[in-house]
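Dear Dr. H.,

I hope your travels went smoothly. While you were away I took the liberty of generating a structure for the chain from your last submission, since the lab meeting agenda had it listed for discussion. I wanted you to have the full record in hand beforehand rather than looking at slides cold. The sequence, exactly as received, is reproduced here:
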Amino acid sequence: MLDDFFWRALLGGIGVALLAGPLGCFVVWRRMAYLGDSLAHGALLGVALGLVLGIDLTIGIVASSVALVAMLLLLQRQRRLAGDTLLVILAHGALSLGLVAVSFMEGQRIDLMAFLFGDILAVSRVDLIWIYAGVVAILCVIALLWRPLLAVTVHEELARAEGVRVTLVSIIFMLLIAVTVALAMKVVGILLIASLLIIPVAAARRLARTPEQMAILASLAGVLSVVGGLFGSLEWDTPSGPSIVVAALAIFLLGLVVAGPAALLGRRLGLGISPGIN
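The corresponding predicted structure, in token form, is as follows:
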């Protein structure tokens, strides 16, 4: 018989996986994998902010992530530094500031390992409310912006010519990643958040024929990763967050093995298997 904390962990992980699937697709399609990683690194600064102000840590992480996005957009207006250089500066600067700030909090008992690698087994009912409220809100926004996001992803200039507000869509997309990072931190931790956004999508990429199929398959792969990782952690007493990522890696490798025969069968049947967006 499984304990309540395990079921809360399972529900929390599944919620984040459902969200990471479609959002991760756009991260991969737009080649913005390092943005998610950068925001995740900066999440520790949000933890410190939440502890200093005495507010919910999720609010602190969202606030710091949004601030990082705003700083990135502001700094991108100058043309002297490349975008990836700015991301490195902001990511590691925010992570270091967070670590230094946390070290000064002598009155606070802080488990840095839980923040860095996740503590999904400590997910509470309040955390579940945060996660699923965020899942519903973000998935609704993605559904509304699906076509504009696809248009911007495929060809930004053409999308602008067709009347898509490219800058606004891009800002909203980055803010969605920021909120997702805050929700996912407790599941896989600061250092592994990007893997939950990227690996299930990579696993689904060679099996999907359309962008919509790819988003659904990515969410399914994420859910299977959470379930497999948690039960593997329970069976072999391994860290939960890294176990989820290992399960995602196993699904990705399995997908590589299956994709070849599936593509061959598809060609013989005249179907073809391709993800629609590279």
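Two observations you may find useful: The chain has a mean pLDDT of 85. The domain at 4-193 is CATH 1.10.3470.10 (ABC transporter involved in vitamin B12 uptake, BtuC).

With kind regards,
E. W.
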